[in-house]
Amino acid sequence: MPSGARRSRASHALVQNVGLVLVIGLLAACIIGYCALFVIAQHRFPGGFELTSTLDNTMPLAFAALAQTLVVLTRGIDLSVGGVIDLTNAVAAQTLMGGPVSTTLWTAAILLIGAACGLLNGVLVAVGRLQPILVTLATLSIFQGLAIRILPQPGGAMPPGFTNVLANPNWPISLLYIPLIGGLWAIFRRTRLGVAVYAIGNDTMAASSHGISVRRTVILAYMLGGVASACAGLFLAANATAGDATTGDTYTLTSIVAAVLGGVSLFGGRGSGLGALFGAFVTVMVVNILFFAHIDPLYQTFYEGLFLLAAVISANMIGRAVRRRR
Amino acid sequence: MIRALFTRDRRRIVYAFIAGIVLFAIGQAVRPGFASLDGIRSILTVASFVGLVAAGQTFVILIGGIDLSVPWVLNAGAILMVTSSLGSDARAIPALALTLGMGALVGACNGAGVALLGIPAVVMTLAMNGIMQGLTLGLSGGMTCTNCGAYAPPVVQAAVHLRLLGVPIVLWIWLLIIVAVSFVLGMTRFGRATYTVGNNARASHLAGVNVSAVTIILYALSGFFSAMAGIMLVGFGGQAALGMGDPYLFQSIAAVVIGGVYILGGRGHYLGSVAGAISLTVLVSVLLAFNMPDYGRSIIYGVVILALLLLYGREEDSA
């Protein structure tokens, strides 16, 4: 590659990560807007309590968005995210009340359940050669059914040790998880699997002819997605200190919203888990802003829809402008 | 000769119809009277609501799109119908025009977002669903408005419940729509343009097809049919309710796909979606006849869809 023709590394990095830069900007704008409205309403700055509750409320969506991203990067889509969250949430409510050892073992088992759900999706997509949207539509129904079978009524309880680790009400413990997710994502991108996921998202044929096993990669991407969804289910249970076999349903669609806001392309191969993480925060912050702006809650989804459209349209335009300038 | 008559797409339609008939037979075996005239009539009536939504979904899936705004366009249509007609036959016609126009307009907005602004269909219609949900809830005050409890005009209720030659009028309407949609897709320039856009939008553009216009019209049709299903549903149940559109999103997509319409566009027929809508409705009824609890229905529903897809919904490319 002729080095003279290349722009500086910084400019290259900016153009490659324009989606990530945009979502960070969006998040910053949301935080400023939220603080301004909060000060007007409460005559003080948001403090530790607001920080903790916002972070804790976001963690399930952050993991769901991560799950969605892993699958969307391979040119798929996972409509069963909500079903896996329902299922893992229900299992958590039925099993976690035991000694510390049993709780730990069951937590691991729940992550395995998530992986198994992802395995089912991945095998049907990669080996069964079915369209991802159809497979996950059908498995969504199956997982939802299983969840209700396991936990017919909302309830159950969470051991305090478990909730304190995942969603401590007194301390913003999520501040530890966010860099952890970011670090894990940075490692994942550099593994063979991570490179393969991006490669098949960009061009499946080319990836396959370069010796990447498309089947194996797709299956593993869905499995990792399933584990992330299971994490979402666990965090949701910890946050609510109880289980509910239907609260996960909404995460199917909001995970797509968060991923899109985070700059993940639904056409595959573009975007990052970090972006999806920030996208999840933007999604939650918008709801907070609407609350403090005294918007009638009945109109909430109206403004969320408008916001999503505005964000996607402006990201399209900015992305195009940046690429043209090059 | 026979092979030429039964192309892959036509075979899929036949399979979907056979699945429906087999399910009817199972239902009859489990509960005698299941496949009686009355049973068939009521199942087909319920299937027609899915079938109407699936008509719109077929249109947009044929160009590789998808319409996730179905639930709240349908719900908004149902509420607009009762609140604008106030249960009087005299207002029925303007109320019908208003409701169907609202559906078409919202659909056209979806199409414009996809075609002109380049927003992915999933994002555009998902956002539109939220917008319509917020508007519906907000404007109706969460269904607390004074007119929200109004009934559908008697003429609309009659259209669903009354029979003509032993067949509910709504089924005649559905038959008319089946013929019209099949005619438009199979025999007109517009139908041909739909298939070419679905196969290759860029090539169609170069060949002189106005891709944006086709896209906008198809999404408008989807909105139109969602609103129409909303009208039929208030005619069926008498009143509107919040959330009445929710089941129709996934059901309409499943019906379209089971009927052999290729989810990435360019291949399939509305007749297939019709067969899919009927099979799915019979399946649910059979599971009800088995006294299957909710969760069991949900699981078997998913398993059956997967089984049908594995039987004939597979991609051929890497075979």
Question: What can you see in these coordinates?
Answer:
The complex is a heterodimer of chains A (326) and B (319). Chain A has a single domain (28-34, 50-312), classed as Orthogonal Bundle (ABC transporter involved in vitamin B12 uptake, BtuC), CATH 1.10.3470. Chain A has helices at residues 9-16, 18-42, 48-72, 81-95, 100-126, 132-150, 160-167, 174-190, 192-202, 204-209, 214-240, 251-261, 273-292, 300-325. Chain A is globular. With 326 residues, chain A is mainly alpha-helical. Chain B is mostly helical and 319 residues long. Chain B has one domain (39-312): ABC transporter involved in vitamin B12 uptake, BtuC. Chain B is built from 14 helices and 2 strands. In chain B, strands 1-2 form a two-stranded antiparallel ribbon. In chain B, a hairpin with a 2-residue loop joins strand 1 (163-164) and strand 2. In chain B, helix 12 packs across helix 13 (270-289). Chains A and B meet through helix 6, helix 12 and helix 14 of A and helix 6, helix 12 and helix 14 of B.
